[in-house]
Amino acid sequence: ITDKSLDRDCTTLSRHVLQQLQSFSPDAQDLSALMNRIALAGKLVARRMSRAGLMEGVLGFTGEVNVQGESVKKMDVYANDVFISVFKQSGLVCRLASEEMEKPYYIPENCPIGRYTLLYDPIDGSSNTDNNLSLGSIFAIRQQEGTDSDHKATDLLTNGRKQLAAGYILYGPSTMLVYTIGKGVHSFVLDPSLGEFILTEENIRIPNHGSVYSVNEGNFWQWEESIREYIRYVHRTEGYSARYSGAMVSDIHRILVQGGVFLYPGTIQNPEGKLRLLYETAPLAYLIEQAGGRATTGLMDILDVVPKKLHQRTPLIIGSKEDVAKVESFIQNGH
Ligand code: AHM
Ligand code: MG
Known about the structure:
Bound molecules: 2,5-anhydro-1,6-di-O-phosphono-D-mannitol, magnesium ion
């Protein structure tokens, strides 16, 4: 074993966050502790998923419908609660807002000093849960502004440039955590024998162009003509490959590594599309921009969108700079 590999084997997530900030300031300590908690939630979710088919009561639906009008799976509830319970013990987070909860969840005992809000999608790609396919969790951390004494959380209705940290956990053949605190994008793999996320790549850069396009083409006739025209362009241009898994964390992770573009456009019936800004599109936009890519609604950068409500949706076109620009030019100029 060389010193270098030993060093790499020892760079845990919390150490990495501290190194990024190069100081022992209170902020650095806080962010390191917060990322550590997110990692713990990821480990708990990964552990349950790894044995899901062997245990009673893990897979399938609860019978409830969430605030988005979607059927809730048992795993959605479990993962949602895991994040709440790990942050209850952290002392740092006063509020959590997620895809599965109509209103933010307050932890009153953390509120006088709790300065942070966690925004998260506990299970991204829920339809993959019962099939043993890739899933994700998406997260972002924001500073709480004001006291929010009326629990209306209006300070969350600001643009994505206010995010302090963002990233995702990918539950694939291995469990990965990819994050940014505004200083590049870094990936970690969970070593189950150590129970630690270990650094695997620092300062990941997304290629400027890639051959993958990732979109649910089943919606073809529901889209605006400009999106259909872009897809026709892809079909007649040599070298493109379609990849769409049903979990955007895994599709966007592929694009982060290999380049390309992921699209979830609006439809004529739902011009805002499906994905939600605060805990899906804005965190991923922040991360992909930090890696040198772009994320847009087609008309404006995702990070400039100011939501009117907590669960606001946005169209999403995200990935390599050149590929995103190509889609944008179809939307804005028709070619
Ligand atoms: P979810 O958080 O309820 O799972 O929804 C988000 C997911 C994305 O991961 C994925 O890209 C998309 O929804 C799939 O939706 P569709 O089946 O409409 O293509
Ligand atoms: Mg989701």
